[in-house]
Every structure is written in structure tokens, then in C-alpha cells.
């Protein structure tokens, strides 16, 4: 069993650490704080903060697993480049109370929270976050660095590109296509394909904000 080091010290890191502890498949040895200040002592859910990103130079990719627990999609992407530059590949962490089809495929560095559902034929890229009770129905495809808020739902055969955020309770109906860098506001319902990347949609039905 490899030791696990979690990068990130905010709220999302607490969800990740909790899920990892419950899964009992990884031994969490420490946390790295991306804003670490010297001469400080801190624990997160009983796990010690070991230092900042420079600590990666002290550990071996062969002996240590990494998970990047940073909620902001853009910051997570930047830090992933540093992590990969040190030779680390992030593991996936799935809460034991999530429902994940055996026919679903994941890249690396993904988090699946409690009561989330991932249906058959779903394909998820790298470094995505599926928060509590989020739902990716059958044959949904998801790119990299996406996040689905609590209760968000993407219905069957929809396609989500990179760096997409679907807020809490947001809904994407079936067979919808969403391009890169799109934000779907909390509670919004997407009923038509979105063509504009780097845009925000809100309301019911969702409209450009």
C-alpha cells in the first residue's frame, strides 16, 4: 500500500481526505498546502500539513501516491503541471458510498463524492470533481478539469468538454454538447447545445448570462 499525500488544504481537501479514510485503500501520510507558511503547525482531519509544493522534491513517485484536492478548476490545472513535472501521477479517489458502474472509464486524479452516480459507458478525463449526489448518466463523456456541484445532473449521451463547471443542482438534459470553459449556474437547466466557449449560462431554461 502506497502512502498518499493530498495537495490542498481547503474545504475540498477535507472531502477528499474523508473519502480516502473511509475507503481504507490508501494510507494518508500528509497534506501539502499550496499557500504554506513556514513555522506553522496544522492538521486537517488529523492529518499533518507537511509543507508546501517544494516538499514534492523530498518524496518518490514510486513510493508515494498523490491526489490534487484543489476545488478551483484553473488552479487545479496549473498545479497538475507542477505535480506531473515531478513525475507524479494522481490517483482516483471514490467515496465508498458512490455508485460507479463497472463499465465507466476514468483517467487519473478524479474525485467521486458520496452518493454520486456514474452510469454505464461514462468516460471521464483527468482531474475532475464529482461532488456529493452529482449524477453522470449513461454514456456521458467528460473532458479534463471539470467540476459538478452537489446534486448536479448530466443526462445520457451528453458531451462535456474541458474546464466546465456545473453548479449545485444544475441540469444538462440528454444529448447536449457543452464546449470548453463554460459555467452552468446553480439550478440552471441546459436544454439546447451550447456553442460559445468561455461563457456562463443561468436560469431555466439556461440562457447566456
Summarize the structure.
12% of the residues lie in helices and 30% in strands. The chain is built from 2 helices and 24 strands.
Structural class: alpha/beta
- Compute the average pLDDT: 94
According to DSSP, the number of beta strands is 24
Overall 3D form: globular
CATH H-level homologous superfamily name of the largest domain: Hexapeptide repeat proteins
Main sheet: strands, sense, barrel: 8 strands, mixed
Strand content: 25-35%
Q: Any idea of the CATH topology of the largest domain?
A: UDP N-Acetylglucosamine Acyltransferase, domain 1
Number of helices: 2
SSE pattern, N- to C-terminal: EHEEEEHEEEEEEEEEEEEEEEEEEE
Low-confidence stretches: none
By CATH reckoning, the class of the largest domain would read Mainly Beta
Order of strands in the sheet with the most strands? 6-9-12-15-18-21-23-24
How many individual domains? 2
CATH architecture descriptor of the largest domain: 3 Solenoid
Helical fraction: 10-25%
Radius of gyration, in Å, reads 17 Å
First-residue to last-residue Cα separation? 47 Å
Amino acid at each position: 500500500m502506497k502512502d498518499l499525500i493530498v495537495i490542498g488544504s481547503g474545504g475540498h481537501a477535507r472531502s477528499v481526505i474523508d473519502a480516502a479514510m473511509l475507503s481504507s485503500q490508501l494510507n494518508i501520510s500528509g497534506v501539502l498546502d499550496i499557500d504554506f507558511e513556514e513555522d506553522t503547525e496544522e492538521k486537517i482531519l488529523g492529518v499533518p500539513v507537511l509543507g508546501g509544493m517544494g516538499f514534492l522534491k523530498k518524496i518518490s513517485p514510486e513510493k508515494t501516491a498523490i491526489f490534487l484536492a484543489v476545488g478551483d478548476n484553473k488552479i487545479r490545472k496549473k498545479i497538475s503541471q507542477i505535480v506531473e513535472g515531478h513525475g507524479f501521477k494522481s490517483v482516483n479517489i471514490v467515496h465508498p458510498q458512490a455508485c460507479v458502474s463497472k463499465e465507466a472509464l476514468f483517467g487519473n486524479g478524479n474525485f467521486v463524492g458520496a452518493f454520486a452516480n456514474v452510469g454505464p459507458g461514462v468516460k471521464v478525463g483527468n482531474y475532475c470533481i464529482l461532488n456529493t449526489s452529482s449524477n453522470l448518466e449513461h454514456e456521458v463523456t467528460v473532458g479534463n478539469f471539470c467540476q459538478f456541484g452537489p446534486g448536479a445532473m448530466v443526462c445520457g449521451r451528453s458531451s462535456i468538454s474541458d474546464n466546465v463547471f456545473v453548479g449545485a443542482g444544475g441540469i444538462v438534459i440528454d444529448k447536449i454538447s457543452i464546449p470548453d470553459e463554460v459555467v452552468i449556474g446553480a439550478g440552471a437547466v441546459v436544454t439546447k447545445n451550447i456553442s460559445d466557449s468561455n461563457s456562463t449560462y443561468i436560469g431555466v431554461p439556461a440562457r447566456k448570462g
